[in-house]
Prior knowledge:
Number of helices: 16
Distance between the termini: 36 Å
Region (Disordered): 1-34
CATH topology of the largest domain: Rossmann fold
Domain Damage-control phosphatase ARMT1-like metal-binding: 36-388
Cofactor: Mn(2+)
InterPro entries: ARMT-1-like_metal-bd_sf, ARMT1, ARMT1-like_metal-bd
Strand content: 5-15%
Shape: globular
Structural class: alpha/beta
Strand order of the largest sheet: 1-7-6-5-2-3-4
Order of helices and strands: HHHHHHHHEHEHEHHEHEHHEHE
CATH superfamily of the largest domain: Uncharacterised protein PF01937, DUF89, domain 3
Amino acid sequence: MTRPSQDTGRAPTDAAPSAPAPVVTGTPGSFARGVLDKxxxxxxxRVRRATPYPPEQRRALDALLDEITKxxxxxxxxxxxxxDLWRDEPYYGQRWADVPxxxxxxxxxxxxxxALGHFAPGPWLGIDPFAPFKNAELAGSKVxxxxxxxxxxxxxxxxxxxxxxLLSSLWGNRADLGFQLSAGEAGLGDRVQGLVADDSAALWxxxxxxxxxxxxxxxxxxxxxxxxxVADNAGPELLPDLVLADHLLATGRADSVVxxxxxxxxxxSDATTTDTLACLDRLTAASGRAAAxxxxxxxxxxxxxxxxxxxxxxxxxxxxxxxPADLREDFASAALTVMxxxxxxxxxxxxxxxxxxxxxxxxxxxxxxxxxxxxxxKCDVVTGLTPGTLAELDAGTESWRTSGTHALIQVRx
Length: 413
């Protein structure tokens, strides 16, 4: 069992002193306020119904619900494993609505696990309260359709294979790989329409640099290096990430892929090692190309070309500008770090009220190496848009920042 933690020693922050104010939970009408008022209470009830927890855990869930809806932020109990790691946080005694959104969300999930005895010795130690949701999604018939669609991938030219697998990883379980492959250019076009920023050419250029030539040897052979892939959700959204990892290894874009996972359940569907192994089983139990991908990934794990990593900072209530030195070194040594999903994006650029036209490179200037973000938009934070794109999106009636209907691929070389 990984020790519960939110930090392991911080490097000095490189956030710009002029960075805008953080997103706060309680702004009326905001996405963050909706999470506090609706999503978290609904999740407590959903967890309660999914697993037959005994009376002690159910009372603890009642107390947590009462705290987030009526009370102020309370510390973890002194006897809670890992409570000392949260002791110096500055927001205790304040209303949940008055603190930074990123911190409030993170602490809510930590308190939810504490209420369920996830870290305490006993029969509920290590039980994932979100496993019923993850397992149901992974077992769904739509996953069978998606995996069988991989058999048609070789019919595409190599550059379209690259594009299709990248978009599948970007859109997660909304990727509809089968539709893309059967509809050809029309299918890809439908997905591209939702992109508010697309630096995919720069992403492939970075990955090609190690294959086509190294420093001082233009066009000469060199090692493609390591790619860090920081995962987001489990189940149907992790499957295309694993397929993309296999593609990078098989096409020589990466010598190794380091898949960064959560050390314990976090944010409902975030991927852990257990979830990754379940996805590998799902792949290898399929037929055709999916089974071959699963077999190659299992071999890559055994050979050290696919590495699973779960750093405690992955569950921190802070941005990556406060990452500890060992994690910074890991990212610095990668040819490219790919950050998947909305939460990782918030932690990468900072969960702040950035003007949407703030350059992505400016918001990520502290990051120790080349970094890419693959993200569907499900919260208010966004950077790197052109003024024209922003004006067009704001002129629409849709809540484009939070609806999940838009996405971005952003790269800082």
